[in-house]
Amino acid sequence: MDDVREKYLGQIANAADEAALEDIRIAAVGKKGEISLKMRELGKMTPEERQTAGPALNALKDEVNSAIAAKKAGLADAALDARLRDEWLDVTLTSRPARQGTIHPISQVTDEVIAIFADLGFNVAEGPQIESDWYNFDALNIPSHHPARGEMDTFYMHRAEGDNRPPHVLRTHTSPVQIRSMEAHGAPLRIICPGRVYRADYDQTHTPMFHQIEGLAIDRDLSMANLKWLLEEFVKAYFEVDDVELRFRASHFPFTEPSAEVDIRCSWDDGQLKVGEGDDWLEILGSGMVHPKVLSAGGIDPNKWQGFAWGMGIDRIAMLKYGIPDLRPFFDSDLRWLKHYGFVPMDRPDLPGGLSA
Ligand code: DAH
């Protein structure tokens, strides 16, 4: 009986898990276990033998059972310890920042405008920021003596000594992309051209570098009426209002004839702009029917095609929509400003999902 005792207690001590323990229990004290079978043999013993063997077997059975129970508890404790070690967490660590960057209002508004005009069938075109005198001025019907040249506060590039060609310029507007697109694609054409432009000017609403979006549509029979409808659709979508009133004010640009500046009806209450209501008017863009000379410069026959064009400041419409009072911090890279006015990176503007949701 000592051998049996030793064998099972040894096995129990070495059992690696509960399943192994259960196997041992069945082999020792299960219905057909070794100790159980021995207990059944008690009946065949003499009364004297039974008197010593009976209690001894019972004691052995109890001892094995309690050794199994103790080992089981030990295994459970060890498993819990291992789990606690695995799941240990240093609560003194600082929390992980939710997100790092934000989308700059210029990028946001550019994407919003692109989403709107893409939905209206316009492609995005781009051109160089260092532009030739011809693309920036002459091709747009701004000859060298024209006063508009002076009004643009142009940055001129350096020319080598003795080089008498007109110097290149930092483009003063996105209109030269009109010419480049006409040359590249011909008519019909529907494009918008977002990008950086440059003028020597600096105050609360002017910076030497800013952003414009140019628009150009060329087809067989376009008119100011088409332009008016398009711009109304745009303004409603952009300012996310159901109704707007636009005012077309006669104006002058060398590259359009006739020309109009476009104002929207708005109100300013406590410095808060509301579009579509009120007694104020706010200028948002310049536009007109493309001048025949500009079509010709782009290689398009003005007797067969007409077009309308418009140009607006991205920074300006960003300030208006998002209530940003000063233009200069747009380009200061101040993280506090970017966090405050920036947009969540994953929310890309689209018409079904909402532009600025
Ligand atoms: N290029 C003009 C500017 O920078 C804006 C503009 C006005 C663009 C009328 C146009 C237009 O295409 O038709 O002030």
Observed structural traits:
357 residues; alpha+beta; eight-stranded mixed beta sheet; 12 helices; 10 strands; 40% helix; rod-shaped; binds 3,4-dihydroxyphenylalanine
Descriptive notes:
It is a single chain. This protein has 357 residues and is of the alpha+beta class. Helix content is 40%, strand content 20%. The protein has helices at residues 2-14, 18-29, 34-40, 47-86, 105-119, 133-136, 147-151, 176-185, 224-239, 292-297, 314-322, 335-341; strands spanning 123-124, 130-131, 169-170, 189-198, 209-219, 246-253, 256-269, 272-275, 280-290, 306-313. It is rod-shaped, with a radius of gyration of 42 Å. 3,4-dihydroxyphenylalanine binds at residues 173, 175, 214, 253, 255-256, 286-288, 309-311.
What's this model, at a glance?
The chain is an alpha+beta fold and 357 residues long.
How would a textbook summarize the main sheet? 8 strands, mixed
Q: How many DSSP E strands?
A: 10
**Helix residue percentage:** 40-55%
Give the helix/strand class. Answer: alpha+beta
Strand content: 15-25%
Bound molecules: 3,4-dihydroxyphenylalanine
Q: What is the overall silhouette?
A: rod-shaped
Tell me the radius of gyration: 42 Å
Number of helices: 12
Q: Roughly how many Å apart are the termini?
A: 81 Å
The string of secondary-structure elements, in order, is: HHHHHEEHHEHEEHEEEEHEHH
